[in-house]
Amino acid sequence: MLRPFPPSLTGLVVLGLSAAAVAAHVQLDLPAQPLSKSLTQLSQASGLQISADDSLIASKQAPAVRGSLEPAQALSRLLLGSGLDAQVQGNAVKVFQPASNGPMTLGNVDISAQTGIAGMATTEGSGSYTTGSISSATRLPLSIRETPQSVSVITRQRIEDQGMNDLNDVVKYAPGVTLRKFGSDRQQFLARGFAIDNLMYDGLPTIVSTFTLDTISGADLALYDRVEVVRGATGLMTGAGSPS
């Protein structure tokens, strides 16, 4: 007698009770129908106790199986094309889904993260004339309001809007800094009338002079996100320098 257990109690649907013996062959006439129904009929005909997770077989269809077959052969035909397999122990059969050995294809995965103020420094694509954080003055990712020094930021958007091509163009627009030209190839940066002889280039302290500044000042700004201009003492970051 077939007596399925309630799925809410077991998670498995038991499709048959154990029999005293399993016939060598069983005569079957199973049409193409839901797999759960075919397994139930095979269980009744063969005496096998077949168990399967109801979520595995709920939407599966079984092909037609007819003729005099061994129960194992009949079960194999019913599971053909379903992606399921069966494990037999004596009179008990458990239907399961084997682990896939092939490549696994994942669906679309959306990755998002919450970034703190340290991740707000980049200005490219923001369309803004300011930035979320700066670190040139203190090495700490602080907002401009939290930074205890006067700092100006020339953002990517402003560089593009005002057509700045190199560092010389930036100095022309930066408050508190003056560009002095010596002929066509030499220039000097001044602050409060004093020559600037140290810069932070990509975060590294760099000593410059009138003869070496052109190698830095002529660099193409297309490579850089922004320029930060710190006014006031920066000895903590750059060491001893000139009064500028």
Write a concise synopsis of the structure shown.
It contains 8 helices and 15 strands. With 244 residues, it is of the alpha+beta class.
Compile the SSE list and pairings:
Blueprint: H1 7-10, E1 12-14, E2 26-30, E3 33-34, H2 35-46, E4 49-53, H3 54-57, E5 61-62, E6 65-69, H4 71-79, E7 85-89, E8 92-96, E9 150-154, H5 156-161, H6 167-173, E10 178-182, E11 186-191, E12 194-195, E13 198-201, E14 204-207, H7 213-217, E15 227-231, H8 235-238
Parallel strand pairs: 4-8
Antiparallel strand pairs: 1-4, 2-6, 3-5, 7-8, 9-15, 10-11, 11-12, 13-14
Helix pairs in contact: 2-4
User: Biggest sheet, strands in spatial order?
Assistant: 1-4-8-7
In quaternary terms, these chains amount to single chain
How would you describe the shape? Answer: rod-shaped
- The appropriate CATH architecture of the largest domain is Beta Complex
Description:
By secondary structure, this protein is an alpha+beta fold. The protein contains eight helices and 15 strands. A hairpin with a 2-residue loop joins strand 7 (85-89) and strand 8. The longest helix is centred in the N-terminal third of the chain and has 12 residues, at 35-46. The model is unreliable at 1-23 (pLDDT under 50).
Features:
244 residues; alpha+beta; Phage tail protein beta-alpha-beta fold; three-stranded antiparallel β-sheet; 8 helices
